[in-house]
């Protein structure tokens, strides 16, 4: 199996070199190469990538988002049977061939992820692999129940906290921060959906569509990587960060939930976001967050009634081999 590494970078100067150095330690296993897609960084990230002669760089003039950059990377790596998608704050600790074993053991395994370790060396439980979100899980997330009561049964199931981190498992959603994807599976479902821009929920949507199309997604703990987490999104200002997370959550809801589930999530957003907006007004000393709330309410209404959400960013889906398809809507 020909493997390639695909690093998606945006203002990643502080961590990109370590990521690439770890990839180059296993360069003999990346027979299809190591590629960095840089999404219009302004901190010198492309220059860092250029400092590694064995690494290929594509520097975009605009931020195409994580999903757009992943699709661009697959198109630029035509010889790769599988592509290891990496956030630039990931450092490989295990040979990628050990993760490829998950794909080789079952030709219908379309994606696999391993055990991610935080800065202190502890497993990032609740992040490295989750179950697909249900309406209840997203309602609890929006309303803050999962933060106030993280051991509640809905959150435990959603974040797969009931599963031992040292045992393989199937049917989960491994984190997109370090995800090996079979090219045939990527092509079969039309790639990553670029409506999720710039980041959040694109990996969840991709795995949901893989599973709906009959592919498998597995957690494979014999492969390990270190992951710092949140290096790019933490630099977003408060308003665009809130907009990106909630608008992409609603995009996912509109594509994958039935009517009752969409309505419940929308109602939870009306209630759960309001205190955050008040806090944002106080913190920012501006009424700008009120506009954010109004925009999110409009999106929630669109999602609840099942209409297509208004476009918020340029799309590159026309460049894919086929259209991005949504599965039948599971859940409520």
Structure description:
By secondary structure, the protein is α/β, with parallel strands linked by helices. The chain has a domain at 3-134 and 162-233: Spore Coat Polysaccharide Biosynthesis Protein SpsA, Chain A, CATH 3.90.550. Helices cover 41% and strands 18% of the residues. It is built from twelve helices and eleven strands. The protein has helices at residues 16-25, 45-50, 65-76, 96-105, 135-143, 145-148, 153-158, 183-188, 202-212, 238-256, 259-284, 288-305; strands at residues 3-9, 34-39, 55-60, 82-86, 90-92, 109-117, 129-130, 169-170, 173-174, 178-182, 216-227. The strands form two sheets. Strands 1, 2, 3, 4, 5, 6, 8, 10 and 11 form a nine-stranded mixed β-sheet that branches. Strand 1 (3-9), helix 1 (16-25) and strand 2 (34-39) form a beta-alpha-beta unit. Helix 10 (238-256) packs parallel to helix 12. The longest helix has 26 residues, at 259-284. The radius of gyration is 19 Å and the shape is globular. It starts with a strand and ends in a 27-residue tail after the last helix.
């Amino acid at each position: 199996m020909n493997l390639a590494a695909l690093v998606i970078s945006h203002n990643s100067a502080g961590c990109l070199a370590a990521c690439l150095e770890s990839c180059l330690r296993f360069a003999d296993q990346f027979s299809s190469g190591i590629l960095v897609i840089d999404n219009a960084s302004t901190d010198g990230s492309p220059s860092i990538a250029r400092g590694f002669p064995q690494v290929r760089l594509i520097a975009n003039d605009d931020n195409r988002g994580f999903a757009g950059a992943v699709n661009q990377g697959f198109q630029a790596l035509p010889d790769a049977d599988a592509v290891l998608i990496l956030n630039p704050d990931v450092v490989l600790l295990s040979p990628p061939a050990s993760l490829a074993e998950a794909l080789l053991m079952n030709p219908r395994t379309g994606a696999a992820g391993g055990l991610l370790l935080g800065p202190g060396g502890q497993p990032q439980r609740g992040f490295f692999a989750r179950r697909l979100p249900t309406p209840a899980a997203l309602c609890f997330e929006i309303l803050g129940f999962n933060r106030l009561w993280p051991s509640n049964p809905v959150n435990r199931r959603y974040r797969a906290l009931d599963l031992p981190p040292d045992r393989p498992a199937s049917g989960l959603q491994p984190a997109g921060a370090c995800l090996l994807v079979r090219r045939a599976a990527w092509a079969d479902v039309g790639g990553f959906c670029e409506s999720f821009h710039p980041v959040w929920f694109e990996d969840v949507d991709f795995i949901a569509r893989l599973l709906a199309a009959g592919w498998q997604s597995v957690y494979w703990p014999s492969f390990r990587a270190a992951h710092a987490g949140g290096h790019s999104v933490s630099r977003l200002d408060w308003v665009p960060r809130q907009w990106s997370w909630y608008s992409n959550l609603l995009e996912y809801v509109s594509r994958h939930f039935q009517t009752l589930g969409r309505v419940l999530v929308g109602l939870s957003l009306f209630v759960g976001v309001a205190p955050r907006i008040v806090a944002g007004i106080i913190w920012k000393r501006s009424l700008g967050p009120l506009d954010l709330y109004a925009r999110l309410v409009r999106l929630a209404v669109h999602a609840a009634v099942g209409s297509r959400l208004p476009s918020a960013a340029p799309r590159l889906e026309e460049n894919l081999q086929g259209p991005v398809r949504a599965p039948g809507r599971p859940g409520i």
